[in-house]
Amino acid sequence: LPEIALAGRSNVGKSSFINKIIQRKALARTSSKPGKTQTLNFYKINDAYYFVDVPGYGYAKVSKKEREKWGKMMEEYFAERENLNMAVLIIDIRHDPTNDDVMMYDFLKHFDLPVTVIATKLDKIKRGQRAKHLQRIIQVLELEEEDTVIPFSAETGEGKDDAWKAIYAHLNN
Ligand code: GDP
């Protein structure tokens, strides 16, 4: 089955995104405390594909050893998956992407994955500020031509259809 990797800094709203777009209130997830060994979680959706939940990155306090372990697991997964069609990167629309976000985007592009950026927490900014924030995201990530940014809110559900469209566009390739 095709796989879609989902990445995002911890606490950015990744599980809220998943829960909103697959219409489930609660998704089993292990707690992801800094320092704990983290694993990739696979969620089978409609017997049609997998969402692969990439453990949250951006822990400033994680030890070097833990970081190396994380990096190794990531390399192994991304280098070997033949069914991995695309990645979804969740970022917070309110702020410029962090260095960690940029690193994750570059990492995904390094494996030639099409990336759909979900700019979440859309409900937290004023309508008139949207274009400016989206532009900053494109600029800071140096978003490539084939990739898109989709404004999204797990609170209101706005952007849900666009997110699905982007996902389906790549699944059928
Ligand atoms: P994760 O660690 O990336 O999985 O983050 P969560 O999905 O647990 O979300 C972290 C916090 O942000 C929670 O308090 C959510 O309720 C909140 N949150 C997530 N998405 C949104 C959103 O679109 N709008 C608002 N207002 N809050 C959100």
From TrEMBL:
GO molecular function, one term: metal ion binding
Keywords: Cell cycle, Cell division, GTP-binding, Magnesium, Metal-binding, Nucleotide-binding, Septation
Sequence ranges assigned to domain EngB-type G in this UniProt record: 1-173
One cellular-component annotation, GO: cytosol
Origin: domain of life: Bacteria
Biological process terms in GO annotation: division septum assembly
Cofactor(s) required, per the database record: Mg(2+)
Function: Necessary for normal cell division and for the maintenance of normal septation.
UniProt similarity note: Belongs to the TRAFAC class TrmE-Era-EngA-EngB-Septin-like GTPase superfamily. EngB GTPase family.
Name of protein: Probable GTP-binding protein EngB
Lineage: Bacteria, Bacillati, Bacillota, Bacilli, Bacillales
